[in-house]
Amino acid sequence: MSGRAQLMWDEAVTGYDFGPDHPMDPVRLALTRRLVDAFGLDREVEVVSAKPAGESTLRLVHREDYVEAVKAASADPDAADGAYGLGTMDDPAFAGMHEVSALIAGQSVGAAEAVWRGEALHAVNFSGGLHHAMPGGASGFCIYNDASLAIARLLELGAERVAYVDVDVHHGDGVQAAFWEDPRVLTVSLHEHPRTLFPQTGWPEETGAACAEGSAVNVALPAGTGDAGWLRAFHAVVPELIADFRPQVLVTQHGADTHFEDPLAHLAVSLDAQRAVQMACHDLAHEYADGRWVALGGGGYAVVDVVPRSWTHLVAIAAGRPVEPETVIPEGWRQEVFARTRQLAPTRMTDGRWPVSWKDWESGYDPADRLDQAVVAARRAAFPLRGLLP
């Protein structure tokens, strides 16, 4: 197996553009790519442009009638069929929508193929992680569910155990739905509580179909959760599940919208904590999945201050050359940010909270603490179904 990481990138992914008033501004992808380059990480990874996902690949997850509806809306946005979630405020139709969505999906599928075949140990597609798209409909800024397609392709290639860990602020509902009845896939999602955030799913009681009980695990975090609580919850749930499941491949989704500056959600996580979880996922892949790691992007709507820094850390970790938290950002990138957005760019690579401290679960918990209640609820609902102590 090659020890080199792959970065999946095609400049055309920046065409995934719902319009100037939509929060999912593709400048976040362009600026991330430029920051990766500014740190010289191109020399540490193999930059690969995979082909778009074809119709047979898309149908591993999505219904044929939905793919046809996306293609029709792509050709004529004014004719988008709202019954498929297209042409809505969240998912406006735009010309070329099918082509660019299939291209993003293809990058994630290509990442999965490279890791499974041993062409790369780690592969990153930060344009991916579009985890809300359902088999028969668009949802939550997501047209095709590239994360689910990557996992489905791994299963098609012969994988028997794939773990998916989602740390986006929103529940990874589309991936959970795609594999609800499949015990070969373990989905774990840490997200803001469904009482306070879209998509209003991801309750602890959602644990998989009867034929796959315990294959879905949901940690519903109270609004306002910060670094210490977020890391405590992650480490109280994820490592034990991964150690038990022992996946052949670890697929992770790293939406940056948990950050305290994100305008669409209510957690209070720093870049330092996001980096810590990225490093933890990398370590879990090496400890339990022979290093096979597919890392995806996701949400994130602080498109200048947060997303590029967070995902550059992700690429650097996958490349084996982590960027130290206190690192000063190259001036050339900051100038490009101002030229593109008229915004002032950040000057350092994190929020100055490194190292982030948190309390280990084994040291005991407080039954009156809302964060601890969330962890207990997730463990009690799912762990016994997997033969684990809650």
Note down, in words, how this protein is organized.
The chain is about 35% helix and about 10% strand. It has about 400 residues and is an alpha/beta fold. It has an eight-stranded parallel β-sheet, with helices on both faces. Helix 1 (about 25-40) links the parallel strand 1 (about 5-10) and strand 2 (about 45-50). Helix 1 (about 25-40) packs antiparallel against helix 10, helix 7 packs parallel to helix 11 (about 370-380) and helix 8 runs parallel beside helix 9. The mean pLDDT is about 95.
Please give the order of strands in the largest beta sheet: 2-1-3-8-7-4-5-6
Distance between the termini: 37 Å
Number of helices: 11
Q: Please compute the radius of gyration using only Cα atoms.
A: 19 Å
Shape: globular
Elements, N to C (H/E) = EHEHHHEHEHEEHEHEHHH
* DSSP, total strands: 8
Largest sheet: 8 strands, parallel
Instruction: Work out the strand percent.
Output: 5-15%
Report low-confidence residues grouped into runs of 5 or more: none
Mean pLDDT: 97
Structural class: alpha/beta
Helix content: 25-40%
Structural topology:
Elements: E1 5-8, H1 27-38, E2 45-48, H2 55-58, H3 64-75, H4 97-117, E3 122-125, H5 146-157, E4 162-166, H6 173-178, E5 185-192, E6 216-221, H7 227-245, E7 249-253, H8 271-288, E8 293-296, H9 307-319, H10 331-341, H11 370-382
Parallel strand pairs: 1-2, 1-3, 3-8, 4-5, 4-7, 5-6, 7-8
Helix pairs in contact: 1-9, 1-10, 4-5, 7-8, 7-11, 8-9
Summarize the structure.
36% of the residues lie in helices and 10% in strands. The chain has helices at residues 27-38, 55-58, 64-75, 97-117, 146-157, 173-178, 227-245, 271-288, 307-319, 331-341, 370-382, and strands at residues 5-8, 45-48, 122-125, 162-166, 185-192, 216-221, 249-253, 293-296. Strands 2-1-3-8-7-4-5-6 form an 8-stranded parallel β-sheet, sandwiched between helices.
